[in-house]
Structure formats: C-alpha cells, structure tokens
Amino acid sequence: MGKDQTVLFHSSIFGPIHSRRLGVSLGVNLMPNDGKVCSFDCLYCEAGFNAQGKGTTGLPLREQVRLQLEAKLKDMHSKGDPLDVITFSGNGEPTLHPDFPHIIEDTLALRDAFYPEAKVSVLTNSTMIFKPDVAEALKKADNNILKLDSAIEDTMRLIDRPNSKDFSVEKVVEALRQFEGTGIIQTMILRGTHDGKPVDNTTDEEIKALIVAYSRIKPREIMIYSLDRSTPEESLIKVDKEELTAIGKRIEDETGIPVQVN
Questions:
Q1: What is the DSSP letter of 116?
Q2: What CA–CA distance (Å, rounded) separates 259 from 64?
Q3: Where along the chain do its domains lie?
Q4: What is the C-alpha radius of gyration for the chain, rounded to an integer number of angstroms?
Q5: Picking from 131-140, 155-164, 193-202, 227-236, which range would have the lowest pLDDT averaged per residue?
Q6: What is the rounded distance in angstroms from the CA atom of residue 152 to the CA atom of residue 203?
C-alpha cells in the first residue's frame, strides 16, 4: 500500500515556513499533534494515511490555539520577522474542528493586531462546506483554498478516498458555487497506480471534466500543482512543470479564470 509515513506537525502553531504557493507562512494545525484526523485519506497526503490513527492528544482547544498564536505573532513582530500568510493546514482537515468558525474569528483579530498586511489562508478538502457556519467562516478568510482533484467520480474516489459514501463530485461542485468570485480551487495533478489501478488525472477526459466544473464554480483563481514531497502511495509520479504549465494554459484559455501553476 505504501510507506509508513507519519504526521509532519507536532504542535498547533508551526513555522514560519516558506510555502511555494503562499510565501512566508505561519501554520495552524487544528488536529492532534500526534495523529491524523481527516475526512479524506488521499494517496498523496504528506501527513500519511489515516490508518496511523488519531493519536492521544485530541483536538486543541480554541483558547489554546488563540494563546499560542498570539504568543508566536507577538514574538515574530518584536523581532521584525516578515509574515505573508497564516495558513490553516496540518494533520488533517481543519474545518472538522468544532470551533473552526470561532478560531477563524480569533485569527483574523490577531492578524489585524500584529500583521495587518498578512493574509489568512485555509487549505480545505471541501467536505465541510455543506455546513453553513463553516462556509461563512471560509468566506471570511482572505484565501479560501478549496480542493477539487477530479471532476470524475471514480477518479476522485481513487485519489482522495473520502470517508463518506454520500460525498460526491456533483454535490461538492454544486456546493462550491457559493464561493463564486471569492474561492480558490486547488487541484493536485498526478499519475501512478494504487492497488493495481491506474491513477491519472492528466488525461484529456479529466481536464475537460475539470474545465466544465471550474466553469460552473467560477472561482476567483485556480491553483494546479503536483507532488513536492514523498507520498504514502509510493507509485505516484510528479507531473513536470512544462506539462503543468500547458495544462494550466488550456484551463485558463477555456475558462477565462486565472490559473496559478506551482
């Protein structure tokens, strides 16, 4: 099935790190610091497969996150350190945290106090956007980065492996339309195999389906990227920058939506 990869982030606040997509980024992890909690089990997840378990620490409390973030921002600000973005990612899906909407409010207030020029970004797999309070919180973020790895059901299920049988491409594309003009759709482009099945969302059929979905959603921007680090499914192959650029140009030409290629 792939290598035994473990969780990357062992605290609620981590970094800052340099993100190839976002700049100097201070990370916020709302999942356990010794396990993984996610509504997807993606073949390419840098935090590993969900089978590693949820760990023992549980989810951090809202107040813990606020205090730790405040302390880090205060320290960085006093040293004159730069900051481009505060990014919610970490060991699973951040919007699963029951206090996610309130934590976004806390984060925006702290950002305004210490780094008003910095952006707040959320990397989400789009599984919780059906909840009104989560959707409204995402709309408050400067960069609401929503996953759509394939617009073909079988491919999405093969790559992303959602926990819920009710989650579907049709339902999520329809729900993503609420972020018209504000959301950023992010798509991982990759090839490989898994359990003997080919994994490839670079085909003409796949790109056509994505173009139709993007055109329905009408986000403010599309991000396409490929693998950057090791993945739990070892057969996966990074798509090179030249091919990614060509795919991005096709998408931009056919949708009229700006495409960022990383």
A1: T
A2: 37
A3: 13-261
A4: 18
A5: 227-236
A6: 11
Nearest to residue 3, comparing CAs of 36, 39, 49, 41? 49
Q: What is the pTM of this model?
A: 0.93
Inter-residue long-range contacts of 255-258, CB under 8 Å, 24+ positions, other chains counted: 255/211, 255/214, 255/215, 255/222, 257/214, 257/215, 257/218, 257/219, 257/220, 257/221, 257/222, 258/220, 258/221, 258/222
- Enter the CATH code of domain 13-261: 3.20.20.70
Tokens found for residue 3: 């290598």
Query: In the chain, how many H helices and how many E strands?
Result: 7, 11
Structure tokens at 202: 């670079």
Distance CA 166, CA 75 (A): 44
pLDDT (tens digit per residue) in 113-137 = 999 999 999 999 999 999 999 999 9
